[in-house]
C-alpha cells in the first residue's frame, strides 16, 4: 500500500472507534470526493477549536461561551442531569423530554484506565451545585451515567459526595427491561434493576 495512503489512514485510526479497515474505507471514500469538498472538510477541521468550544457552565459543545441549553431561560435550574459525554446529552435532548439543565463530566471513573474523580469535571459540578443552592435553596441531581461498571461507580461516588448536603437530592435514571425484550434473555443486572425500578 502507498506510504502516503498509509500515513493518512493511520491519522484516522487515532479517532475513537476507527480501526484499520474503517480508516482505509474513509481514505478511499475521500479519494472519490471532489477537491472542493476535501478543501471544505480540511478547512472545517483546522478551524474546529476556534469555532466550537465548551460551554463554561455545563461543558456542552457551543459556538459561544454559554450553550443554547444553559442560555434558555425556560429551563428549570433546580434540575441538573449529570451525563458522561456530550453525546449522552444530545440523545436526551433529541427525545425532547428533559426541561432541566445538564452537566457533562467528560467520562466516568475507571481505575483500570487510570481515570479517577480528579480527571472528571466533578469539582465544577460541586461549584455549580453550591452556586445554585445559594440562589434557589434546593436542587435535584439526576445521575444519568451509563449502566456500566464505570458509570455505576461514578454515580455511587457522586451520590456519596452530595449525601447529607441539605437541599440536594440525588436520583438515578430508572433502568430495566427494554420494550420488546424477552425475560429469558435478560441478564442478572438488568433483572435486578427492573425489579428495583418497578412501579
Whole-angstrom Rg:
21 Å
CATH fold label of the largest domain: Dna Topoisomerase Vi A Subunit, Chain: A, domain 2
Distance between the termini: 59 Å
Mind summarizing the main beta sheet?
4 strands, parallel
Would you list the SSEs in sequence order as H and E? HHHHEEHEHEHEHEH
Overall structural domain count: 2
Concise overview:
With 199 residues, the protein is an alpha/beta fold.
Descriptive overview:
- With 199 residues, the protein is an alpha/beta fold.
- It contains nine helices and six strands; from the N terminus they run ααααββαβαβαβαβα.
- The protein has helices spanning 3-13, 20-31, 35-46, 48-51, 68-71, 86-95, 122-136, 149-162, 188-196; strands at residues 53-54, 61-62, 76-83, 100-104, 139-143, 168-172.
- The strands form two sheets. It has a four-stranded parallel β-sheet.
- Helix 1 (3-13) packs across helix 2.
- The termini are far apart.
Question: Could you name the key traits of this structure?
Answer:
9 helices, four-stranded parallel sheet, 46% helix, Helicase, Ruva Protein, domain 3, 2 domains, Dna Topoisomerase Vi A Subunit, Chain: A, domain 2, alpha/beta, single chain, 199 residues, two-stranded antiparallel ribbon
SSE diagram, text form:
Layout: H1 3-13, H2 20-31, H3 35-46, H4 48-51, E1 53-54, E2 61-62, H5 68-71, E3 76-83, H6 86-95, E4 100-104, H7 122-136, E5 139-143, H8 149-162, E6 168-172, H9 188-196
Parallel strand pairs: 3-4, 3-5, 5-6
Antiparallel strand pairs: 1-2
Helix pairs in contact: 1-2
